[in-house]
Design goal:
Elements (H helix, E strand, L loop, with lengths): L1 H13 L11 H23 L4 H8 L3 H9 L6 H14 L5 H8 L4 E6 L5 H16 L3 E6 L4 H13 L4 E5 L5 H10 L3 E4 L12
Parallel strand pairs: 1-2, 1-3, 3-4
Helix pairs in contact: 3-4, 3-5, 8-9
């Protein structure tokens, strides 16, 4: 009797308990797959909803060239046609690609301005007036502040030129010599404001 008890104890010790198997049903697997698909759906949806120039032209019933003219040179198309193109573009959430337009037209529709400070009353009024006049002509103002630092002004002018501005508005004539060289090399139209110099009257106001 004692021997059988000891043998049973030894057998139990040699055979560890097996963890219960976890069984995943077919329905549970389906739910997991659905959740994974739902999680990835927004990304796929955003990619699939990307709208281009061709789609706008197709729905508006015009050519891609007509869409470009309606957006970039509205005076070349009838008001009715422009309204139709704008309505379709708004409905689809389409915004023209500025980089592509710049490559096509050679113009970005932006004007850069570097002012020494934004706290000076006269500068603030000038910036407001400049922005209003540019907007009326279809241009967007890109503004930078040099804090009266010629080196900082030079770097800001570089960045604005890199962004493809069509022209620049600067303050005074006390610029870093390298800045004038860059403007001449890149043939960027510019004007020096708040200064008058007879010798450089064409670039000063």
């Amino acid at each position: 009797m004692g021997d059988r008890t000891r043998n049973k104890a030894r057998t139990s010790a040699k055979s560890p308990e097996t963890a219960p198997a976890i069984v995943v049903s077919r329905d549970e697997r389906s739910v997991a797959r659905s959740r994974n698909q739902s999680a990835s759906a927004p990304t796929a949806s955003r990619k699939g909803n990307a709208v281009g120039l061709r789609k706008v032209a197709e729905i508006a019933g015009v050519s891609t060239a007509t869409v470009s003219r309606a957006m970039n040179k509205p005076d070349l198309v009838s008001p009715e046609l422009r309204d139709r193109v704008l309505s379709v573009a708004k409905h689809l959430g389409w915004v023209p690609d500025g980089a592509a337009r710049a490559l096509t037209t050679g113009r970005s529709g932006t004007i850069g301005a570097v002012f020494p400070t934004l706290t000076h009353g006269d500068f603030a009024l000038a910036i407001q007036a400049l922005q209003s006049h540019l907007a009326a002509s279809g241009y967007t103002l890109l503004l930078a502040c040099s804090e009266y630092d010629p080196d900082q002004e030079l770097q800001q002018v570089r960045k604005l030129i890199e962004r493809g501005v069509d022209a620049l508005a600067l303050v005074g004539e006390a610029h870093d010599p390298e800045l004038n060289e860059i403007l001449a090399q890149r043939a960027v139209p510019y004007v020096n404001t708040f200064v008058y110099n007879r010798e450089s009257h064409g670039t000063c106001i």
